[in-house]
Amino acid sequence: MDAAPFDPPLEAFPEDFTSVLCVVAHPDDIEYGTAAAVAKWTEAGTTVTYFLLTRGEAGIDTMAPDEAARVREAEERASAAVVGVTEVDFGNHHDGVVQYGLDLRRDIAREIRRRRPDVVVTGDYGDRFVAGMLNQADHRAVGLATVDAVADAGNRWIFPELVDEGFEPWSVKVLAFSGTSRPTHYVDVSDRVAVAVASLEEHTAYNSALPDDFPKPDQLVPMILEMGAKAAQVEGVTHALVLDVVNRR
């Protein structure tokens, strides 16, 4: 699962921002690496908020969806608090069957207009992650919808009902994708690995339900961030979150 080097080396992710919105499908999606960068940003005084389109209610085979939704929402809030995030919001889409479409775009655009972030971070919407691993359907739907919602959020005449709700248009400066096989930038998180592991460890019920041979948080998070450092090719960077930055204004 080694990351291939990129030529030229990746650029450092810009630091001239004060607010970030992370948009993902499920509880724990942010914790597979992105939380390390979140910890760095919040420690620097950046406001970071989370928007999850589902509550992960279909994610635990031995737990009924209503119960799983309550448990996983609580775990996500606890996980976010570890890296300095206090504002965590959830949509009402259904785990496992999130559908790309106008409803999804509108919900994400509304959250962008409400939070008014400089930076939006979401997951890659390709059919494969890094190292060829298959990407899950909800991830693909939410990632693609976020691309369109960033544009929607800045256009008064797309979803004009949002203006009626009190949400004026907002233009995002940077859109970035995690979990990408085509990174352009990196965030040096060499000293944030432990806090990122602790954030993922808050998903106790979900982690306990994973197969016995699935890597534990203290194995998986460092592995992901070490792969990022290999892609970054920067001396002294041992762990990195890599991102595909596709919209820099």
UniProtKB/TrEMBL annotation:
Record's protein name: GlcNAc-PI de-N-acetylase
Pfam families, per the entry: PIG-L
Gene Ontology MF, one: hydrolase activity, acting on carbon-nitrogen (but not peptide) bonds, in linear amides
GO biological process terms on file: glycoside metabolic process
PANTHER family on file: LMBE FAMILY PROTEIN (PTHR12993:SF28), N-ACETYLGLUCOSAMINYL-PHOSPHATIDYLINOSITOL DE-N-ACETYLASE-RELATED (PTHR12993)
Keywords: Zinc
